[in-house]
Amino acid sequence: MVSGPSLDEQAYVRGGETQTAVKILVVGHFAVGKTTFIGSISEISPLSTEETMTRAGEAIDDLKGVQSKTTTTVAMDFGRLTVSERVVLYLFGTPGQQRFVQMWEDMARGALGALVLVDPERLADSFAVIDLIEQYGLDYAIAVNHFDGSPLRDERALREALDLLDDTPVVTCDARDERSSAEALITLVRYLMDRAR
């Protein structure tokens, strides 16, 4: 288990003012929209390690429902979002494929929590991701990435399908939309702050 720091352990000085740096993981299964999410919300040009998918990867990665996907994250995505004068989020997007799961432990170190992106059409793909986040002892919120044409899901049914605790936040977002992505992150940060009290 990787233990995370508390909010007050994250303080640093920037421009003469004390700010709190918060490391957040953006996680989810393969092709759920993590790179898009960080790209839509980061106030800096996001660092992305997207590479063209190869024929070898096609044999391993399940492209069902995402046949048009041509690139994949091979290391991580990174972005930054200032949510107030005092709080800055550093966003680390993890690769979604099982073969990259060994990187997660290093990425989880020092993280305060995780935003788990979920595709409502592929809920079963999220089970292993949630198990891993719980194994690392990270608090998390669920962000259901609402894709074009997909029906909105009932929150109670989602909670039951994902076997979530009653207090685990569940929000719907569009990873392509800055405002929607920001609202999902704010939900997570509020939850983390409530848990720290």
UniProtKB/TrEMBL annotation:
The keyword Hydrolase applies. Transmembrane segments: none annotated. It comes from the Bacteria. Belongs to the GPN-loop GTPase family. PANTHER family: ATP/GTP-BINDING PROTEIN-RELATED (PTHR42708), GLIDING MOTILITY PROTEIN MGLA (PTHR42708:SF1). This is ATP/GTP-binding protein. Gene3D superfamilies: P-loop containing nucleotide triphosphate hydrolases. Keywords: GTP-binding, Hydrolase, Nucleotide-binding.
